[in-house]
Specification:
alpha/beta; Rubrerythrin, domain 2; 2 domains; 13 helices; 12% strand; globular
Length: 448
């Protein structure tokens, strides 16, 4: 036999070379077959390493941990660390949905520098962005209400006041008898199971527990999904039980008997407070799923208030007329909100209507006792300071917490709240506000 033949036998007979040969073959097979990945934020984008993603500049064979740091999910803008490996079966289930998304959206790539959400009409909807960046699910219609929340806050500027004695600001607060680390609460949200890979109960729990870890209180929303007749099976109530009642349940304005039963179950779970979000009366998702929401009369709100020993919250107030009627019905907390711009298009921003609502409440009988919360467009602690200066007692934060609650759980929610806390401290130092009582209109001006 020739030397070359002997050499071939020798190479294949060498155990180390045989092992290396097997590894190379396995690698080639894996390259051909590819590992399959799913974005955990949008639950839409799927990736096959065997094919790569030429539209995103990703060559065959790379897995998400090997993507460039600048890579973003083409659907929602999530970072590479939010991608998880999935089975071949799950990939085959998800792939048609992503292909359909590309056809509907008309875009195949994530545009660098364009933030996700209706903040920019040219961008795709999404939950994942870095702290402080515009983000969120699109608002209803053309997204004007959603955009107006952001633009209303943008009109206001903070005034620096620095020639005073330095003092560490104290921004601890008390909400309905519970001491909290700052005047920030987790807004009531739900329905994330419709657009992401999370259950309603898990999402509600992540918000409640994340807020608790940050030293504050979270609210839960009331999903449009049907979870059966017994109210105790409702996801927000199940989540509330898991945190020993440290939270607030807010329910969509359903039939009176349904609401009263939900309120009763929340009370049994140890809730801090309960309420109804009137701004959900036009919820398209609820209507499509057969859970019809209703507007409420003053008498109906009064009945709900009397059905519980807990403080009662009326959410969705955007004008002085409704504010005064809510007080007449016995509300303990009035939440100035337009549902994040997700129910009615072309409403003004919350920062624009808040001063008028506050003024009407404070001069009304018992108005000084009413707690006022506000939400809409809050992205940083500086936004929180603006809302407080405009008259809110507490500020609710929604989309930034939802963004982290889905892929990162309670710890992600806490992380965002900790960022907000740092901003609040900085803003109070720079405006010479040593206590929350000193935050008022004197530290802001409107940029016309």
């Amino acid at each position: 036999m020739s030397k070359s033949g002997d050499s071939s036998i020798s190479r294949l007979s060498n155990p180390n070379r045989l092992a290396n040969h097997a590894l190379r073959q396995a690698f080639k097979a894996k390259l051909r077959n590819g590992s399959k990945w799913l974005c955990t934020v949008c639950n839409i984008y799927v990736y096959d390493s065997g094919k790569g993603d030429p539209a995103m500049g990703i060559k065959q064979g790379l897995t998400p941990p090997e993507f460039p740091n600048t890579w973003r999910c083409p659907v929602c803008g999530a970072t590479r660390d939010k991608q998880k490996e999935i089975s071949e079966e799950e990939y085959n289930q998800k792939a048609p949905g992503y292909e359909n998304f590309k056809k509907v959206s008309g875009r195949k790539t994530w545009a660098p520098g364009i933030p996700a959400g209706a903040d920019n009409p040219d961008a795709l909807p999404g939950l994942a962005q870095e702290y402080g960046m515009p983000l969120g699910l699109r608002g209803i219609g053309q997204g004007f209400s959603y955009l107006n929340n952001l633009r209303a806050l943008e009109k206001f500027r903070l005034k620096t006041r620095l020639i005073t004695k330095h003092q560490e600001p104290d921004f601890k607060a008390e909400f309905l008898g519970r001491k909290i680390s700052m005047p920030v609460l987790g807004a009531s949200m739900s329905g994330l199971s419709l657009v992401s890979n999370i259950t309603e109960e898990a999402f509600a729990y992540n918000i409640l527990e994340g807020c608790r870890l940050a030293g504050t209180i979270g609210f839960t929303g009331n999903t449009s999904k049907d979870f059966g007749t017994p109210a105790e099976k409702s996801p927000p109530i199940l989540a509330l039980k898991r945190v020993n009642g440290w939270g607030v349940n807010i329910f969509k304005p359903q039939a009176q008997d349904v609401l009263i039963e939900l309120i009763k179950q929340s009370e049994g779970a140890g809730a801090i407070a309960v309420g109804t979000d009137l701004d959900g009366a036009g919820s398209a998702n609820s209507t499509l799923l057969g859970k019809f929401p209703y507007r409420k009369t003053t008498d109906e709100l009064r009945e709900l208030k009397k059905s519980t020993r807990l403080p009662f919250i009326v959410k969705g107030i955007t004008n002085k007329e409704d504010a005064l009627l809510a007080i007449e019905a016995g509300a303990d907390v009035i939440s100035v909100s337009n549902h994040g711009g997700r129910v009615l298009d072309s409403t003004p921003g919350i920062a624009d209507v808040l001063p008028e609502v506050v003024a009407a409440i404070r001069v009304s009988p018992n108005g000084k006792k009413i707690i006022i919360t506000a939400d809409g467009g809050i992205r940083t602690g500086y936004d929180v300071i603006k809302m407080l200066a405009l008259g809110a007692d507490f500020v609710l934060v929604g989309r930034p917490l939802a963004r982290e609650a889905v892929p990162s759980g309670a710890e992600g929610v806490k992380r965002i709240l900790d960022y907000l806390k740092q901003d609040i401290r900085t803003a109070m130092i720079m405006t010479s506000c040593n206590t929350l009582d000193e935050i008022n209109e004197s530290i802001i001006f409107r940029n016309h």
